[in-house]
Amino acid sequence: IESVFKGKACTEIRESALGLTKRLAQTAQETFGDFEEAVEKDATKTAVLDGTVHPLTSYVINYVKFLFDYQSTLKQLFQEFENGTESDSQLASVTMRIMQALQTNLDGKSKQYKDPALTHLFLMNNIHYMVRSVRSCLACS
């Protein structure tokens, strides 16, 4: 934008573009915060009777994979929004908070099982799914 809209006459265009980019970055940050909160507070009663992977886990993992697909764009946005903050760490922080919210939610859902063995199986299956999915996503990057 700086090189295309050079000169004093285009100052307003450059400032508008910068303002728009900052608002877009702020909206992305708010969206991730809202998603994190929704994951943490998800109270669906979708019971997984046999301790397999919960639908919320696969939904969140797909969302995180989507973030990886657009990581270069998101890093640029975070860089615009957070001057002086490393954009890689910003994206990692957002991802970690979402994954922690999922873990917290799954811990709560695991307590619905009456059989302690199913509680542990449920948590193991979900964590294994999360790790395997993230590893395969990182291998593709």
From TrEMBL:
This is Exocyst subunit Exo70 family protein. GO terms for biological process: exocytosis; protein transport. GO terms for cellular component: exocyst. One of its GO terms (molecular function) is phosphatidylinositol-4,5-bisphosphate binding. The keyword Transport applies. Component of the exocyst complex. Residues 1-137 form the Exocyst complex subunit Exo70 C-terminal domain. It comes from Citrus sinensis.
